[in-house]
Amino acid sequence: MTAVLSVRDLGMTFGSIVAARDITLDVPGRQTVGIIGANGAGKTTFINMITGHLRPTSGTIRFEDRDITGRPSRAITRLGVSRSFQVAQIFPSLTVFENICTAAAVAARHGRGGSILARFDRPDTHADAAATMELFGIARYRGARAATLPQGVRKLLDIAMAVAGSPRLLLLDEPTSGVSIEEKFAVMETVMSALRSRQLTVLFVEHDMEIVARFADRVLAFYDGTVIADGVPTQALEDPRVQSLISGAAGGRSHA
Amino acid sequence: MLTTFAIVTDGLVYAAYLFLVAVGLSLIFGVMKILNVTHGSLYAFGAFSAATAVGVYVDLGLPDAAGFLFMIAVAMAIGAVLGIVLERAILRTAYGRDEVVIVLVTYAVFLILEDTVTLIWGQRSYPAYQPMVAAGDLELGDLILSNYDIGLVALAALIAVGGYWALHHTRHGRLLTVVIFDREIAAAFGVNVTVIYTATFVIGAMLGALGGAVMAPKISVTPGIGVEVIVLAFAVVATGGMGSIEGAMIGALIVGLCRAAAVHLFPQIELFVIYAVMALVLVFRPHGLISQAQPRKI
Amino acid sequence: MPPWLVSLATIAFANALVVLGLLILWRTGLVPFGQALFYAIGAYVVALIGRFTPVRDVFLVVLAGAACAGVVAYLIGFLLARYREIFFAMLSLAMSMTLYGVLVKTEALGSTDGFHVEAGTFFGARPQGQALNLAMFWLVLGFCAVSALGVTLFFGTVAGRLAAPARDNEIRLEFLGVSVDRLIHLELVIAGTLAGVGGALAALVVAHVDPSMAYWTTSGGFVFVTILAGAGSVAGAFVGSFVFELVRSVAVDVLPDTWQMTLGIALLLTILFLPEGLSSLFRRLRRAPEAKA
């Protein structure tokens, strides 16, 4: 069975700075992977390379057996790869409903090969958007301008938009960052149950080890631009190198 | 051979003129991120004030050198006053708005000042050739160079070097450089950005007026010179790189030399060549030839 | 309607077409400072057809002008669509000033004086004097109605509704799979073609073309009206253009030495107190009686 995501010898160098090196891994379909590591370890660089925001200086990336190395973000998105951002990227002057409709309308266009001059307000687009809002529990913010949303809702909106295009690979960059500690689990639970209904392969970056242990099937630990541990949570999180370099204390929360 | 020499000398003189006109604009953009259309009016005010001043000192029979300094002083004083009034009364109300909105505010003020010039000085043209004539000529073989033009080039060089030195080697200059780089960071470090903005605008206005004043003896001072000069200044600054003295200098040299070449070799494309060069440079380097590094956003 | 008002409205509505195009770009967060380029192309094509060919039919010449402007917009768009903010504005300005430079120095086109435009025919009919003015008025109104409808429909399409998100967060849109450069390219072609129609009609109405139609102050006037109209509505473009022409005519008549000052003050007041343009004023007036009830 071919892996959904296949990375070989991936590397990224900015001048004299090596942000990523020798990353090789395969991610099978429907797996949920937690990515951990201190700030600057290369996690966001890794995501940026997969989603086309950065062109790797070495190595290859394959999605569903297609080479996507160095291709532009919009092409990669159209192939079925989506992401959310550390700082939620939304459309501040539009309402939540309009935000999601935008994502849904664009996705509908790609899915059905529709023209960019097709009508925007269509019943199926509206229905899709409404369903997505329900799924992520943000339906009550429907008419609110995105600029006025609380942080947790912004992150959910960002993820909801990423999911609108029915991607097959989803990368979440710190989905709970900026959310208060009490709410982190709730937000992650909402996201994960929303994603469960879809046939998704998910990679998420997270600093909270408890969340990683709870929601991930597999853990990738990044350090100094490369992967130092790769395995099921109980195994990877107990790894002595991971504990000394990343999580700080046995089973404790990371304070990166 | 003579043509090449003529192109170089003409080009340098024109470049000096362009630099004097554009350096104030570049400075204001660099520090305040405002594309100041009103700059054209400051130029016009400078030119008209200078012409009036020339008339006054000729009538008073002052010696030429003193008269020239008087002309410059009057123009720069008027530039300073206008600068302060405009910045505090009008521009302040628009800070924080969209970049383009601020440009439109300066455009509106430009329209107002265009007519103000006509109200004060009328529709006629003012001669101010006396300083240029008084300076005399320099003969280099077959070529006759005006001393006034040589003085222009010297003045431009002086301002370029002096400005560069002031920005990089004086305390106040360095403060300005910090604000140019990032206004918010500067404010976070306790830099009084409000005062810096006012000071920059006033200096820019004075430089604009100076540009008009020194050009007055060379051109026909009529209403409407502001309109032509502003788009020329834009071209220079966009070509060389907006927001720096070096940018204004490079832009001025390139545009000046290209125009001189066109005037001597293909007069039909004289106007076209300035904007074509600008468009060409922007194609390869959208921020101009000397541009500041743009930090990544996500 | 008195004849002077008809003429005023005719030219105002022809110019409003340029503003309509600017509205689309303004919604995307872009302000080109050189739409006069397409305006002048539309105008000069009409004038040249009248001078060098026997074709006089108004529809043919206007569509020819529009087509040429559209083609130029398509070609320039490959470059221009890659820029944003002030650099977009400056490159646009550079291109219009380049055309200006060419027109001024071309003796064959009358250089700064420009030249006369032959009157058009309407399906073979050749109206004169007042009848011609009226015919032109209805022609312009017709093109405006079609354009207004077209642009309104456009704002209802996916492309039209992506303008605001593109202004808000271009990166997000790219990550949803949209090529924002291509979107802007499309908008530039639409805006350029509309400006070409406006210029072509203006040439017929005024019966004269000259290089000032490509000058930056002409572009400035269009941007001025766009601000006056506000980014809100298609109707605003026409109302704003009409008000602008009215104010300008009155100012030139009543205050011949200070008409620019009058316009400048009007623009300043609009920017400072009516940031959303005239459309917001109407919205406010409409809301007031509702609040009382």
Short structural description:
Chain A is an alpha/beta fold and 256 residues long. Chain A has helices at 43-50, 73-79, 96-111, 123-135, 151-164, 181-196, 209-215, 233-238, 240-247; strands spanning 5-14, 17-27, 32-36, 58-63, 66-67, 81-84, 169-172, 201-205, 218-223, 226-231. In chain A, α5 packs parallel to α6 (181-196).
Question: Top keywords for this entry?
Answer:
heterotrimer, A: 256 residues, alpha/beta, Rossmann fold, six-stranded mixed beta sheet, four-stranded antiparallel beta sheet, 9 helices, 10 strands, disordered C terminus, B: 298 residues, mainly alpha, ABC transporter involved in vitamin B12 uptake, BtuC, two-stranded antiparallel ribbon, 12 helices, 3% strand
Characterization of the model:
The complex is a heterotrimer of chains A (256), B (298) and C (293). Chain A has 256 residues and is α/β, with parallel strands linked by helices. Helix content of chain A is 37%, strand content 23%. Chain A has a single domain, classed as P-loop containing nucleotide triphosphate hydrolases (Rossmann fold). In chain A, strand 9 and strand 10 form a beta hairpin. Chain B has 298 residues and is mostly helical. Chain B has a single domain, classed as ABC transporter involved in vitamin B12 uptake, BtuC, CATH 1.10.3470. Chain B is 77% helix and 3% strand. The longest helix of chain B has 31 residues. Chain C has one domain. Chain C has a two-stranded antiparallel sheet with strand order 1-2. In chain C, helix 1 packs parallel to helix 5, helix 1 runs antiparallel to helix 9 and helix 2 packs across helix 9. Classes of the chains: A alpha/beta (256), B mainly alpha (298), C mainly alpha (293). Chains B and C meet through helix 3, helix 4, helix 10 and helix 12 of B and helix 4, helix 10 and helix 12 of C.
